[in-house]
Amino acid sequence: MAEPSFPTAPTPEALEHGDQLAPRFDANGLVAAIATHAETGEVLMLAWMNAEALSQTLATGEAHYFSRSRNELWRKGATSGQVQQVVEARIDCDQDAVWLKVRPQGDGGACHTGARSCFYRVIENGKLRAAP
Prior knowledge:
Order of helices and strands: HEEHEEEEEE
Structural class: mainly beta
Shape: globular
Radius of gyration: 16 Å
Number of strands: 8
Helix content: 10-25%
Distance between the termini: 42 Å
Oligomer: single chain
């Protein structure tokens, strides 16, 4: 199956203020994707999306990402049950980062470690400590 393609914005004005989705994927074909909890605003995770992941996310209403370590598309929660139902999808001003507001399913977590958020540690004086 061919990877979906998105248009290229013809001008900076169109990119930043137009109504056409024209993601600017990096040299590896990826954009950053931030997922936050739709109700609380808590940052849950940072992941990567290729064109197929973005297209599948928009088509299904469930978050799909691209695993750089496994070099493959994955639907969040396919094995863990931590499906992320997308409430709203946004893209930043220059269309190289996506923000998903999601409702976590399953146990409500987002991190492969079992934590609710992947950002469960605070950096203090060069050391890490767990924080809610």
